[in-house]
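Board notes (copied after class):
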Amino acid sequence: MVTKVKAYPLLKGYRNTPPADIDAIVNILLSASKLVMDHPEIKELDLNPIVVYEKGAKAVDARIILE
């Protein structure tokens, strides 16, 4: 899924920028998915932005809407 986004070439590194930690992105996606599956009262989950580093990543802001 990560390789299909338009920004993927940028994540691989460009113009002397090191590649981003793709595994950290995948970990965030899997963790968010598990959170939603474990808590069916979550109607919406928005993580924006997600900042990705050469080693690691973090969600800067999160919005969760409950049912």
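Comment from the instructor: The domain at 2-66 is CATH 3.30.470.20 (D-amino Acid Aminotransferase; Chain A, domain 1). The chain is about 30% helix and 25% strand.
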